[in-house]
Design goal:
single chain, 249 residues, alpha+beta, six-stranded antiparallel sheet, five-stranded antiparallel sheet, 4 helices, 13 strands
Length: 249
């Protein structure tokens, strides 16, 4: 089939519908489908973006066991405030992501908290590849962002551990079906690419993304570490000021 003519290009494009996979991930067990605000399968070597409101819970699921989700969060209404991976590691005194870990902004606020994790194969140290960064930049452009807005990312489903000599060692992926849930504290733009890890170049498999409204869960978080509580206090102060029309930064 040729695409040299308009008619040929149209026929070729329509033919792709017969082979494309338009499957939409189902809500997790116990989640009311009416509360779902986003459901998407992210193919290998692809990207996606979305603006998510406060109180949204988002599940990333490694359906086949070879996904790698590189994630960047930026405040939706103030994108100059974004995920700070260094503080995300430094403030909680923990380089390895897991349930209860905050994803902190460069202003000391919690953009999201990891509230569930069945994988434990993640990375905060390496970021993404140049190809992954290019995909993130494409996604960012849809929100008026440029390459200078694409900072370091956290990576889910491809693990890295540091040994006694300081060497970074890839630990691979977890079992198929593993998932990570993030609870959003402030409205954010999420940029996500499902692409290989710098230390683990194996091709990725599809990633399922489902997000639903769960604002009531913001009051049930169980992390009582003082650093986390202080960051939550900073977050709530900013949010309350916005709701009162003060627009504090």
């Amino acid at each position: 089939m040729t695409t040299a003519s308009t008619a040929g290009a149209r026929s070729h494009a329509r033919a792709q519908a017969g082979v494309a996979d338009f499957s939409i991930p189902s809500p997790p067990t116990g989640v009311d489908a009416a509360k779902v605000v986003w459901a998407e399968e992210v193919p290998a070597a692809s990207y996606t973006t979305k603006v998510l409101g406060r109180g949204t819970r988002i599940r990333l699921q490694d359906t086949a066991g070879n996904a790698c989700a590189h994630v960047l969060l930026l405040r939706a209404e103030a994108p100059w405030e974004r995920l700070n991976v260094a503080d995300t590691v430094k403030v909680p005194w923990q380089a390895y992501l897991g349930a209860g870990h905050p994803l902190l902004s460069d202003q000391g606020r919690v953009l999201a908290t990891v509230v569930a994790d069945t994988s434990s194969h993640h990375d905060t140290l390496c970021g993404t590849t140049p190809a992954g960064r290019e995909l993130l930049a494409r996604g960012g452009a849809k929100h008026g962002l440029t390459i200078r807005d694409i900072g370091p990312t956290v990576s889910f489903f491809r693990g890295v551990r540091v040994d006694g000599s300081g060497t970074l060692n890839p630990t691979g992926s977890a079992e198929p079906g593993s998932y990570v849930d993030l609870l959003i504290h402030l409205p954010v733009t999420i940029l996500l690419t499902n692409s290989p890890h710098p230390l683990d170049p194996a091709p990725t498999s599809a990633l399922d993304v489902v997000a639903w409204r769960a604002a009531d869960e913001l009051g049930t978080l169980t992390n009582t570490e003082p650093e986390y509580l202080r960051a939550v206090q900073n977050t709530e102060s900013a949010w309350n000021a916005m709701q009162n029309g003060d627009f504090a930064s």
